[in-house]
Amino acid sequence: MTTEAVERDEQEAIRAASSGGANEPLRLLAEDGEDLAIISAALQDAILRPADIVWEKGARRLTIELSRFCWECGGTRVRAAMQFGDVISVKSRGLPRLPDAPLELLAIHFFEGEAPGGRAILMFAGGGDLRVDVECLDAVVTDLSERWPARVAPTHLDTPPNGAEA
Predict the structure, then answer these.
(1) How far apart are CA 28 and CA 130, in angstroms?
(2) Which of 12, 19, 28, 154 is the most buried (most CB within 10 A)?
(3) What is the chain's mean pLDDT, rounded?
């Protein structure tokens, strides 16, 4: 299956999940890697700050508040939250330390470990990532606010930079 076909399938899954109406908030649950791929597509190009990432070690919970670009309805953004349960550890690499530095989420990948656990990697523009080790994959995303018009729609390069071959 081509990358374009996978992205199209993920966008269709997001539209189906939010098909209750154009203004219905998005609510998604991930219990396996395939579910998390759908959440990843829904959160692609979300904007957040390091201060929006809260790990409650005692509660084994990671919560991230973000500004989600609504790919399924086009041209709008919405405040949303993602939460991982059963978190064992959280580690960052290459993320800015300033609490208000902007971060752009590119993708979330899940690597299975000892069932039903594994590792979720949140990849950000600029090369930084956040690793979330979970005893059991339990992730939810929900919209928190009304939508508002996005100032700019995210764009992606169709070809590698400098004319490099893909």
Answers:
(1) 20
(2) 28
(3) 86
Q: How far apart are the first and last CA of the chain?
A: 16
Angle among Cα 101, 102, 107 to the nearest 5 degrees reads 130
CB atoms within 10 A of CB 132: 22
Please answer whether residues 130 and 95 qualify as being in contact, where contact means their C-beta atoms are separated by less than 8 angstroms. Answer: yes
Spell out the residues 6+ positions from residue 112 whose beta carbon is closer than 8 angstroms to its own.
33, 118
The pLDDT value given to residue 9: 58
Burial class of residue 122 (count of CB atoms within 10 Å of its CB; 0-12, 13-18, 19+): buried
pLDDT at 4: 56
Determine the Cα angle at 48 with ends 44 and 37, to 5°: 25
d(CA 72, CA 20): 12
pLDDT exceeds 50 at position 159:
no
